[in-house]
Design a protein that fits this description.
transmembrane helix, mainly alpha, membrane, DUF347
Length: about 250
């Protein structure tokens, strides 16, 4: 089958950050404002993720709408996993961050031992795709835990959190352009976009007394989802265009 993962472009990173923000605000909206609670929200989103992942795995090529729907749902489920550990089971953010980091490292190690590569440019077998999505889920869970650890437990706050994680992503990008390992810098940036998106989502949605702008989870989620849908529709149109017409 053809590679099932999109090319890494500026649009890729923009959609990724937007999807992580939706994961943060969407999970909060369903669990708190709709009143579903963490358990029901997690179960519902997990069921939707299984359906989306089934469709993604059975596709024979990259389909933008299917791929990014799966990413958004992974973002929400990853957020719910961390929130359940912290809020329901009382696991400290230090512990959950460490556990997810070890789990992600173990996934990468097993992936490399089996496939001899961690490159996203060769996701052309079912086994590689399963490794890929397992790693993606763990990056969201780790990013959520690390982001909450930085902004809440360590007291950075939402505004400073956005600045710090943006700076770390900038440093990672600079390292790549200076000749750093492409695979390593990609995955480091992928992990860091999760706490950046979470901090941005909290900054926009939370009330001013909590350090936010006060847009609310509904308006923030709708605004970001609208941009995601527009960008994915644009990518889908490019994918459907006959060869030779996309550059016109």
């Amino acid at each position: 089958m053809l590679n099932k993962v999109p090319e890494v472009t500026a649009v890729f990173w923009l959609i990724k950050i937007l999807s992580t923000t939706v994961g943060e605000t969407g999970a909060d909206y369903l669990a708190v404002h709709v009143g579903l609670g963490t358990a029901v929200t997690g179960a519902l989103m997990l069921a939707l993720l299984v359906l989306a992942l089934f469709r993604q795995l059975n596709a024979t090529r990259y389909v933008p709408s299917t791929y990014w729907l799966t990413v958004v749902l992974v973002s929400i489920v990853g957020t719910q996993i961390t929130d359940a550990l912290t809020d329901t089971l009382g696991v400290s953010l230090y512990a959950s961050t460490a556990v997810f980091a070890v789990a992600l490292a173990a996934t990468f190690l097993l992936w490399y031992r089996c496939e001899r590569t961690l490159s996203i440019h060769t996701i052309v077998t079912r086994r590689r795709e399963l490794f890929y999505w397992a790693a993606i889920l763990l990056t969201f869970a780790l990013g959520t835990a690390a982001g909450d650890l930085a902004t809440e437990a360590l007291g950075l706050g939402f505004r400073l959190g956005v600045v710090v994680f943006s700076a770390l992503i900038g440093i990672t990008a600079l390292a790549y352009y200076l000749g750093g390992n492409a695979v390593l810098t990609f995955w480091v940036a992928y992990i860091l976009t999760r706490p950046l998106g979470a901090s941005l989502g909290d900054l926009l949605s939370q009330a001013s007394e909590y350090g936010g702008v006060g847009l609310g989870t509904v308006r923030t989620s709708i605004a970001f989802l609208t941009v995601i849908v527009a960008l994915v529709a644009w990518q889908s149109a490019i994918e459907r265009a006959p060869r030779g017409q996309t550059s016109r």
